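the four lines:
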Amino acid sequence: MIHTTELTTRSYECDSYGHVNNAIYLNYLEYARIQFLDDLPVPYHELRRRGIGFVVVRICIDYRIQVGSGEHLRIETRSIQKQKVRMVFRQSVYMGDELVAEAEVTWACINDRGKLIRIPPELDIPELEPEP
Amino acid sequence: MIHTTELTTRSYECDSYGHVNNAIYLNYLEYARIQFLDDLPVPYHELRRRGIGFVVVRICIDYRIQVGSGEHLRIETRSIQKQKVRMVFRQSVYMGDELVAEAEVTWACINDRGKLIRIPPELDIPELEPEP
Amino acid sequence: MIHTTELTTRSYECDSYGHVNNAIYLNYLEYARIQFLDDLPVPYHELRRRGIGFVVVRICIDYRIQVGSGEHLRIETRSIQKQKVRMVFRQSVYMGDELVAEAEVTWACINDRGKLIRIPPELDIPELEPEP
Amino acid sequence: MIHTTELTTRSYECDSYGHVNNAIYLNYLEYARIQFLDDLPVPYHELRRRGIGFVVVRICIDYRIQVGSGEHLRIETRSIQKQKVRMVFRQSVYMGDELVAEAEVTWACINDRGKLIRIPPELDIPELEPEP
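prediction for all of em together
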């Protein structure tokens, strides 16, 4: 399953070159992953209330083109790996047909004291199964 | 050559878990690379004035431990590859003896219209030569 | 004239209390003002291309209630003063019927070297006239 | 008592004009206030551990001059009002002898459920008494 999130870049996200700063993309990707989880049968904010969260343990991101303020972006997110504690997502950012950035993000499941825990069984759902 | 930068994490850089947000580390790494360049014979702000800049084209970062507000961090930066247009840095973030995060960052050289250009000859200096 | 902008708060905009950080509201307000200008006959990005910009010289903001992630906000922006170089906006942020924050923001007009200049005559339009 | 904090502006804090973005100053001011509290006999992080915090309820800030990246700033913070629940600070940001920005910030004391509470008696100390 591919989840799609849309957003528009904002002036204050641009750096002194006039382009969206590279660190801001990590915010966009986090936003898209949480939108993805919030659209699942057990939404993310429900998990957070129960003390379950996710923390980024690894990101690889390639930046292809520079984007200015006021541009409309589309982020596609899909699960490509799911283990006991970790999930890996591939996330692609598009502006129209153009690929802006591509990333692989590894999330680990934690409890409210920050300890690694098993991903809860409620997330054993087809939407999060890696594509074959 | 290994360049060292130090900084202290700040309250507003922490997210709702109370830890420095993963995107903030990209800011820290950029800060450390620019400090590195500014300590060279031809400092970065001098290059910028001549229309030469660097843009991140790829980052891979591993997060090892969570860090709260007010912690003292040390960032070590070294060149590990230098081509015509691109440079790759390895950057390690430490809190005391503990490794907090580790990254490889690829920078491409651009002119003031955002076009890729050759790294200027003033940067053919021992400090930026990859370690053997 | 009252201009209305809508946005949804995002996880990475929240601080360690789990609420949107106070500095983020200044970003929201800037976003709303630029949306306002971009909806005018001479949009903001067109002015920027001609070297005309606006810089904040004063902000007073009252925060009424705390807001978490994923909340839908509405920002109302109106001109309340317009002089040769400066404009003052009143901006109100609502979540449903509740007032979240209220601000007065003074913008000064600058050229591309950062010098104060007269607001260009193209902005002598009813939409920016202060309410009587 | 005037508390002084120093910091250096960073590249990623600058916007597309090449100057420190106006919202970033609110971060700087927060940083300076927390440094102030952390230098008191009962430091801020100790209060936070006991569930006591402070939330900004009002800020008025005047921006005097634009500041670029890599500039050394000095922030002076003093209490100018102290009530049961609220404290007002005056904060001045300098670059060398030049005044960069000046602000009045009202903080309200809250418990860990976000309810307003009396400022704890441990903060009845000379350092926080308003100047006559």
